[in-house]
Structure formats: structure tokens, C-alpha cells
From TrEMBL:
Function: In addition to polymerase activity, this DNA polymerase exhibits 5'-3' exonuclease activity.
PROSITE patterns according to UniProt: DNA_POLYMERASE_A (PS00447)
The keyword Transferase appears for this protein: yes
Name of the protein in question: DNA polymerase I
Family designation: Belongs to the DNA polymerase type-A family.
Domain DNA-directed DNA polymerase family A palm: 633-840
Assembly, per entry: Single-chain monomer with multiple functions.
Entry keyword set: Coiled coil, DNA damage, DNA repair, DNA replication, DNA-binding, DNA-directed DNA polymerase, Exonuclease, Hydrolase, Nuclease, Nucleotidyltransferase, Transferase
5'-3' exonuclease domain ranges (all copies): 2-261
Superkingdom of the organism of origin: Bacteria
Annotated EC: 2.7.7.7
InterPro entries: 5-3_exonucl_a-hlix_arch_N, 5-3_exonuclease, 5-3_exonuclease_C_sf, DNA-dir_DNA_pol_A_CS, DNA-dir_DNA_pol_A_palm_dom, DNA/RNA_pol_sf, DNA_polI_exonuclease, DNA_polI_H3TH
Length: 875
């Protein structure tokens, strides 16, 4: 007996597409459906071990159902282009995975599945049908099991005849009768009005079939159901016919021929998965039949494992002898991340020349003072260049142990990030498999040593690619030195007034309790405010407010809905306040409390390779995102204080850096003149756009001009501007037209950068950082419009990020050069925060301002504004 797996191709592709909607390659190919499909198939294949697999697809040609019923599937939305483009590629992948494809004109995939499953049953085979469509449940039998996906494609239920009867109380074939009564909106099958799922099941359980129910219609006690059934009896029978899967399609299918399908083609799959940028799937290719895969390089690694501290000195000495002069040593390690710095650990590290490899148990080494000194001598040897992967996390661990690794010459992770920003999130294993397709990564310690050895290949590959793409300057002048700076900032941390945080905990709880009481009073009852379902019931049923939007599970109560209802009832404003306060409380009061380390400081982790814009991000906890528009959010900054009584906080931030960058890259004379003449750009824009002398520009006009200025940077449409300013779309368009007529080179720059993005697929910052924008060439107008906005904004935002990073490097180096004890502790967008010794304050203020304003030379002068305070709130 053989085991056959039949896949409902269209159904699984559709499910996978909506489960993984945002998978796009760097060349703009949507791949979410393909990725989800392959993962699902490989999981099922692993669970079931089928002898052969067949995948059925729908054809575009009309089926017999369309011919019998003109309105069949009428009104169904056209398949999104982003999904449609994935079908041909999916079929090519299946072909090379030894999966037969069946599709027949005039019939749906369901009919092909039904026919094939019956044919296999009759030949004594065991059949599994994989689908996301419950219609296929009618095929469940003693020999055919239907595997239904739910929650996207990650979870399944498996039904044979017995399981179906046990769960639904009817047979699988009677499920067709249920569908006949219910109808199917997605296929535009009528059914009987007023008979939903519950009633349909009840009727079939009682009468066995649609035909028998119609014969006994007079005995049905539910008046409306009885009347509708009599009036729509023909519709019920016809709906049943449309819902019935055909199991005798006339097609020449040789089961033996299907079983002996072509072999798994690993080479072609490797090529396809590389093109589709499926890094993790590349790693799974060896799951194909061993005898069908081409032999890969031997990966059993020859390495010395250093377990005992007394063995380290000899091992490092041997390794050093194997390293030629000026040749690098590769360094790779693991780091256990934790919000508290004291809990971050390294359990192993690997050091490699090209031929010799050491796997070091760091837990034992770090616990031994003499061994630690030996390791320190090796890592601090400036004659030994070191290449690594994500070195910052290692530096933080080493520095806390008193080791300051020297001559970090290359970080593979940083290079990958600059070459392709999304690759900054990849593990070394994924990066290796993507860039070195011949790689075969073993498991365990062999794998860690093997990946370390591959750092040399990645170093050579990425160095060459950075040279070609003119990224060397950005890499070596900014990103690589910044790595050590960020490590120092993590170790330094930000001191916290824990007593004040405790007081705020009490205050926030009192405010939340008060808001709860007010909301309950306005609602007339207590309920779970955090439950969208319960809140929806209160707002739209009990209080009878107008329904703005519905979801599959009920009423929408998202922020847009609440904004639209703001003036309809006082409860809305209270609910919005409640959401804001509870979010600040849980994220920044409870969250910050949990992150305080033993030294009383919070040591956030700074991420250098996550944001595609080039900006830094902060996690565990995120100190860059503390809300400043809400009074209680701003108050959270009061808990951040200097390190000691001899210090004060200095904040220095760039003034309008993105608009200054726009002036520089557009070369617009009026903007350049305004900035270099210290003229307020928002006042000048208000004067230009609204035709008012500068001295007569009011606060309101300046605010409107500010919205226009920043709207231009972010590619804002006239519609969005009209919403922001509360004016008509026509007025907003007039404002924008006047703006572009006054600043013509800004308009020319925006038009040209969009054309450049369409042609090249990417845009650049002033320091050559690339941002790939595949969305800009998509057919979907909404996706394309988002791509246009990214093209306009990315060079500006990315250049601002480059400038800030360069400023951090220059400030840090100037502090070190002058042997000052003041230190950088945080960067938030356009702002640097330093813990400054009070006796160094004037020196540091002057130094920071000077280095920030001279970080790069633009056509306009950069301006940095400093302030000091005893808390971050004051500063």
C-alpha cells in the first residue's frame, strides 16, 4: 500500500499569501505565498512520509459550474497581482521537488483532488488531502484523510470519516447538504435565505439530506425556515449540486506513472531558493533524498577544544604561529541576551586562522584569572587584525571582563547590512547559506567552527562588493568605529531614580483606577476595557454609537474608529486616555523597573543593523520611544538622572537636520540662503506660501508652513496635508503648488529621485548608504505609492542618520583625546545625551556643539542646540 499526499494548490497558496503578506526580495518579487507553501509542504511531508505527492491547481478556463450558473463566483475579488505572480514560480519549485502538478480545463482543483483521491482509494492506497478549504471535508473517508489548515498555514486538523462524524454529528457526504442549505458567499452559491450553519446542521442531522428535508418541510416547526425552504427548494438542490466535488473527471491518470516521478533536483532548487532569498530553506535542502543530492564538501571540522584554563596558553600560541603577518584571525561567539547587562553571558567562542581552529569554553576560561590574562593578551594584540560577526555584543562582554579587543578590522554583519539592509537581521548561518551556496553547515560545535572559518570567505566577498558600491568610506569611517562606541554606551548605561519610579507606579495605578471608574459610570456597567469585543458591545450596542468599521470577529475599536467617534460620546475620550496611560504604565513604568540592573542603571541594547534607514534602534528597553507628546510620557524622563552628584546631563540635538539635508541635496538656493542667513525656515515658507511679509507671519501660519515643510520630506500627498491642516484638498494642493514654485529645485530633486529609484531599484544617502525600494515598481498602486514616498524620504532620513553617526564618532574621539571623564550614554534620533562631569561642563558643551556642527560639510551649516539638567526631562 502506498501513501499519496494531494495538495490543494490554490487554497494553500492563498492561505500562505495572507499569512506572510510582506515577503519581498531585494529585486521586488513577492514570495510570501511560495515560502509559506514550501514550509507547510515540508512539514506535512516530514509528518506523513508520503510515497508520492501531487498538487492540483485551478485553471483559468470556465468550469462546468460557470457554464451552468452564470453568477458562480461572481463578485469575488480578483486575485492580487502580488499573489498571481507567484504561481508560475511555485510550479517550477514543485517540479524540482518531485511533485506532480495536475490541472484540467473545465474543472476546479477540488474536482481533480476528488477524482484522484477516489482512484487511489480504489487501488488500495492511503490518501491525505491538504487544503485550507473546508469544502474538501466531504472527501473524508476510511482511506482518505483531509488535512485542513487553520491560523494561516501553521496549524492543521486531520479528519477521516470517523473523526468527522464524531465532531460534526453527520457524515462527510452529508456535509454537502449542509453547504447546499447554507450557501457559500465566497462562491456566490445562494443556499436558502435564513438558514445558517447551525440550522443547516440541525436539519441534516434530523432529516439526513436536503431532498428528505424538503419532503418533510411541513413538519418543520420554525416558521421562517419552513417558509423559506418551501419557497427556495430548487435553490437548495441546485446549491447542493454546485457544492458537490466531482469524483469521476475523465482524465488519463496513470497512478504508477505518478509514483515514479522525476527525482528531486537539488541544484535547481538551490538556484531558485537563492534567487527567492530563502535563506532558511536553503539550509533545509539536504532534507531531499540523500542519494539524489550532489555530494557536498566534507564538513567534519578538525579543531582543538579548549575546556580547561591551563590549556589555553599553549593553544593560543599554536594558533598565533599559524597566522601569517598582517593576516586576520576570525572570531565568532555566542551571546545570551538579557535586559540586564549583568545577565548577558558568552558560553563559547571560536578563534580561527584559515587552517587552525580553537573552540573555547569561555565559562571555564572567564572564571580563571590567569587564563583571562592570556586571552586578554591575545585579543589586545594590535598586530593581529580580527574579523568577526556582530562584534559589538562580544565587545560588551569582553570589556566588562577588563579585555579591550584591538584591531577589529572587519565585522561581516555590518558589511552585510550596508550591502543589503535587510541582511543585517540574519544569523551568520543564514548569511553564509545565502552568500556561499556551496556551504553545508553541520550541527553543534562543528557548525560553530565551520561558520567561523567561513568568515574569511565572507570578508573577501563583502570587501569587494563594498568597493564596487562605494561603501568603504561609510563602513570604515562611521559604522565600524561606532560599534565600539555603542558597546561603551551599553556598559555606561543611564542612571535611574528608582524611588521616583516607585512613586510614579502608585500615581499611574491611581490614574488608571480613576479612568476605569469613569468609563464604567459612562458605560453603565463594568467590563474589560482591554477587550475589543466587550468594548465594541458597549459602544455600538449599549450606547448605540454609529458603527464605523466591522471586523471578522465583531466591531472595530481601533484608534481610527475612536478618533471618528470623539465628539459622539464622552466615553470615547476616556477610553483613549485609558489606552495611552495603560500603555505608558506597562511599557515604561513596569518595563523600566524590571530593567534596572544591580548598579541602579538601565543598560539598553543598541542595534546598529536593524533599521533599513540607517538609524540606530534601542531595545531591552527601548529608550528611544518614550512618548513626549503626552504629559505622563514626558514625565517618565524625570526618572533618568546623572550617574552621581558630581555629574549633570547634557543634551545636544540637531535643529531641523532633515530640512537642512533637503536644502543640501536639492541645491535649492532659497533654502540654502535661509539656513546660512539664520532665517527661520518655517517663517520663510509661511511667507512664501501664504503671501505674507515675514514679520507678519502668525504662529498659526508658521505651524501650517511647518506641516508643509515636513510633509514634503515625507512625500505627503495633498490629501494627507489637508487632513493634517483641516483644510480642503484643493487648498492643500494650492499650498503645495505654491511651495514648489517658490522652491523649484526641491520639486526637481523629488521628481528625479523617484525616477532614479524606479530605474536602479535603490536610492543613496550623501554617504552612499543604499536603501532598496522594490515597492516602487509594483503594479499595485497603493504599494507603488508607498515606494514613491520611501524614495523621496530615504535619502533625507538616511543622510540625517549618517550625519548623526559621524557626529557620535567625532564626539567620542574628541572626549577620549582630551582625556575627559564625561561620556555618551544615549542617542535618540537627532539628540545626543551625555553624562557630563560638572567640572567639565563648559568644555564638553563647546566640544559637543563643535563636533556635531562640523561632522560633515554641507552647503548649509548644521546647527546643534544644547541644554543641561538634573534629569533627562529638564535637559
Amino acid at each position: 500500500m502506498s501513501r499519496l499526499l494531494i495538495i490543494d494548490g490554490n487554497s494553500i497558496m492563498n492561505r500562505a499569501f495572507y499569512a506572510n503578506p510582506k515577503f519581498i526580495t531585494s529585486k521586488g518579487m513577492h514570495t510570501g505565498a511560495i515560502y509559506g507553501f514550501i514550509n507547510m509542504m515540508m512539514k506535512i511531508k516530514g509528518d506523513l512520509s508520503p510515497d508520492y505527492i501531487v498538487c492540483a491547481f485551478d485553471r483559468k478556463a470556465p468550469t462546468f459550474r460557470h457554464l451552468e450558473y452564470d453568477d458562480y463566483k461572481a463578485g469575488r475579488k480578483k486575485m492580487p497581482e502580488e499573489l498571481a505572480m507567484q504561481f508560475p514560480v511555485m510550479k517550477e519549485v514543485l517540479k524540482h521537488m518531485a511533485v506532480d502538478i495536475l490541472e484540467i480545463d473545465g474543472f476546479e482543483a477540488d474536482d481533480v483532488i476528488g477524482t484522484l483521491s477516489l482512484k487511489a482509494e480504489n487501488e488500495g492506497d492511503e490518501v491525505y488531502v491538504l487544503s485550507g478549504d473546508k469544502d474538501t471535508l466531504q472527501l473524508a473517508s476510511d482511506k482518505t484523510k483531509v488535512v485542513i489548515t487553520k491560523k494561516g498555514v501553521s496549524v492543521v486538523d486531520v479528519y477521516d470519516r470517523e473523526k468527522f462524524i464524531e465532531e460534526f454529528g453527520i457524515t462527510p457526504t452529508q456535509f454537502i447538504d449542509v453547504k447546499g442549505f447554507m450557501g457559500d458567499a465566497s462562491d456566490n452559491i445562494k443556499g436558502v435565505p435564513g438558514i445558517g450553519e447551525k440550522t443547516a446542521f440541525k436539519l441534516i442531522k434530523e432529516y439526513g439530506s436536503i431532498e428528505n428535508t424538503i419532503e418533510n418541510a411541513e413538519n418543520i416547526t420554525m416558521k421562517k425556515v419552513r417558509e423559506n425552504l418551501i419557497a427556495h427548494a430548487e435553490d437548495a438542490i441546485f446549491s447542493k449540486k454546485l457544492a458537490t466535488i466531482i469524483r469521476d473527471v475523465q482524465v488519463d491518470m496513470d497512478m504508477e506513472q505518478l509514483k515514479s516521478s522525476e527525482a528531486y533536483d537539488v541544484n535547481e532548487l538551490r538556484r531558485l531558493f537563492s534567487e527567492l532569498e530563502f535563506r532558511t530553506l536553503l539550509a533545509k535542502l539536504s532534507d531531499g533524498p540523500a542519494e539524489e543530492a550532489e555530494p557536498k564538501e566534507a564538513v567534519k571540522m578538525d579543531f582543538m577544544e579548549v575546556e580547561q584554563p591551563e590549556d589555553l596558553e599553549g593553544a593560543l600560541s599554536d594558533l598565533k604561529k599559524d597566522i601569517a603577518e598582517d593576516q586576520p584571525v576570525a572570531l565568532y561567539f555566542d551571546v545570551h541576551h538579557a535586559p540586564k547587562l549583568s545577565e548577558r553571558e558568552m558560553s563559547w567562542m571560536v578563534l580561527s586562522s584559515r587552517d587552525k581552529h580553537l573552540y573555547i569554553n569561555t565559562k571555564n576560561i572567564f572564571a580563571d584569572e590567569k587564563a583571562l590574562d592570556v586571552l586578554k593578551d591575545f585579543l589586545e594584540d594590535e598586530r593581529l587584525p580580527k574579523i568577526s560577526f556582530d562584534i559589538k555584543d562580544g565587545l560588551t562582554i569582553f570589556k566588562r571582563l577588563g579585555i579591550e579587543p584591538k584591531s577589529i578590522s572587519f565585522d561581516v554583519n555590518l558589511a552585510a547590512y550596508l550591502l543589503e539592509p535587510t541582511d543585517g537581521k540574519l544569523t551568520l548561518k543564514d548569511l553564509t547559506l545565502k552568500n556561499l551556496p556551496e556551504a553545508a553547515v553541520p550541527e553543534g560545535k562543528d557548525g560553530e567552527v565551520y561558520l567561523t572559518s567561513k568568515l574569511f570567505d565572507l570578508y573577501e566577498k563583502f570587501s569587494e562588493e563594498m568597493e564596487e558600491t562605494e561603501l568603504h568610506g561609510l563602513y570604515y569611517e562611521v559604522e565600524l568605529p561606532l560599534t565600539g562606541i555603542l558597546s561603551d554606551m551599553e556598559i555606561e548605561g543611564f542612571n535611574v531614580n528608582e524611588a521616583l519610579l516607585d512613586e510614579m507606579t502608585v500615581t499611574f495605578k491611581e490614574d488608571i483606577d480613576q479612568l476605569e471608574k469613569e468609563i464604567y459610570d459612562l458605560a453603565g456597567e463594568a467590563f474589560n476595557i482591554n477587550s475589543p469585543k466587550q468594548l465594541g458591545t458597549i459602544l455600538f450596542e449599549r450606547l448605540d454609537l454609529p458603527v464605523i468599521k466591522k471586523t471578522k470577529t465583531g466591531y472595530s475599536t481601533n484608534v481610527d474608529v475612536l478618533e471618528a467617534l470623539k465628539d459622539k460620546h464622552p466615553i470615547i475620550e476616556k477610553v483613549m486616555q485609558y489606552r495611552t496611560v495603560t500603555k505608558i504604565y506597562s511599557t515604561y513604568i513596569v518595563g523600566l523597573k524590571a530593567a534596572i540592573d544591580g548598579d541602579g542603571r538601565i543598560h539598553s541594547t543598541f542595534n546598529q543593523t536593524l533599521a533599513t534607514t540607517g538609524r540606530l534602534s534601542s531595545t531591552d528597553p527601548n529608550l528611544q520611544n518614550i512618548p513626549i507628546r503626552h504629559e505622563m510620557g514626558r514625565a517618565v524622563r524625570k526618572v533618568f538622572i546623572p550617574h552621581d552628584e558630581d555629574s549633570i546631563l547634557l543634551s545636544c540635538d540637531y535643529s531641523q537636520i532633515e530640512l537642512r539635508v533637503l536644502a543640501h541635496i536639492s541645491g535649492d538656493e532659497k533654502m540654502i540662503e535661509a539656513y546660512n542667513g539664520d532665517i527661520d525656515i518655517h517663517t520663510k515658507t509661511a511667507s512664501e506660501v501664504f503671501g505674507v511679509p515675514m514679520e507678519e507671519v502668525s504662529y498659526a501660519l508658521r505651524s501650517s508652513a511647518k506641516a508643509v515643510n515636513f510633509g514634503i520630506i515625507y512625500g505627503m500627498s495633498d490629501f494627507s496635508l489637508s487632513q493634517d491642516l483641516g483644510i480642503t484638498r484643493k487648498e492643500a494642493k494650492e499650498y503645495m503648488d505654491i511651495y514648489f514654485s517658490r522652491y523649484p529645485k526641491v520639486k526637481a530633486y523629488l521628481d528625479n529621485i523617484v525616477l532614479e529609484a524606479k530605474e536602479k531599484g535603490f536610492v543613496r544617502t550623501i554617504m552612499n548608504r543604499r536603501r532598496y525600494i522594490p515597492e516602487i515598481n509594483q503594479r499595485n498602486k497603493i504599494v507603488q505609492a508607498a515606494g514613491v514616498r520611501l524614495a523621496m524620504n530615504s535619502p533625507i532620513q538616511g543622510s540625517a542618520a549618517d550625519i548623526m553617526k559621524m557626529a557620535m564618532v567625532k564626539v567620542y574621539e574628541a572626549l577620549k583625546e582630551k582625556n575627559l571623564k564625561s561620556s555618551l550614554i544615549l542617542q535618540v534620533h537627532d539628540e545626543l545625551i551625555l553624562n557630563t562631569r560638572k567640572d567639565e561642563l563648559e568644555t564638553v558643551k563647546k566640544l559637543v556643539k563643535e563636533e556635531m556642527e562640523n561632522a560633515v560639510k554641507l552647503k548649509v551649516k548644521l546647527q546643534a542646540e544644547e541644554s543641561v539638567g538634573e534629569t533627562w526631562f529638564e535637559a
